[in-house]
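Researcher: Next entry in the queue.
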Amino acid sequence: MNKNELKAELIKIRDNNWNFKDVKIYEDMIDSIGDLEPMLRDELIYSGFCKMMEKNILNGEEKNEILDRVLHLIFCGIEEKGDFIYTRTFSVLIVALMVAYDAEDDFIKKEKFDKTVDLLISYISKEKDLRGFTGENGWAHALAHSADAVYACVENKKSSSQQEILLINTLIDKIACTYYVFAHNEDERVVSPIIYLIEKKVIDVGYVISRFKSTKPDNEYEKYILDANKKLFFRSLYFRLKNIGYEDLLTLEKEIKNISPYFYEN
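Model: Structure for this entry, 266 residues:
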């Protein structure tokens, strides 16, 4: 069906308490997953997938078909900055959704889970369009959606410690950006899987600091961008750790102060 038909049908389904008469509508939903209209893309298609999973109306074969298709789409137009960003980032959200529900329903085989992790790492590394809220077209939010997918992967019992570290490394490397300042709460989304792995004792705060500091700016302009991202990220990490009662925060506090030390001189 075309876009207008799909939108009308999804509105009807939503208004009827998300009662899907034919679950195969997911095929059309995937075809329009990166539509430029925020209402269709976010409120109807993404929310529709969430409701499908919540209501458990898809069988294992259908869930795996959806995962296969969105894993292909996360690389759509990856070499360019343009409207394909919405296809990529909302496909990543569906990856996150599927992997999160697999932790309960176990419909993804280990081999496919490993492939999903590899593709996600590759996607995050290659993504250059890091816009958050884009105005009329709504959210792109590549890093935030990637962080959600990483969180789903590291929470899944199929993940190994090696995979978890690779996923977190890729995420930290991306937020340690020297050409774009993350101003749309990406830092908070990135911190979530990091907190999880710190509590799980897979990594510690020193590891996170060291990994972030491995990114070196090429000039003063890049340094200011990197420092802005570092400050946002480290502050979010600090307060989230403090919120869960984490005690060893002195090293992180020093790192935050060292970003702009002249503001902390007595």
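Model: The first helix runs from residue 3 to 15.
Researcher: Noted, moving on.
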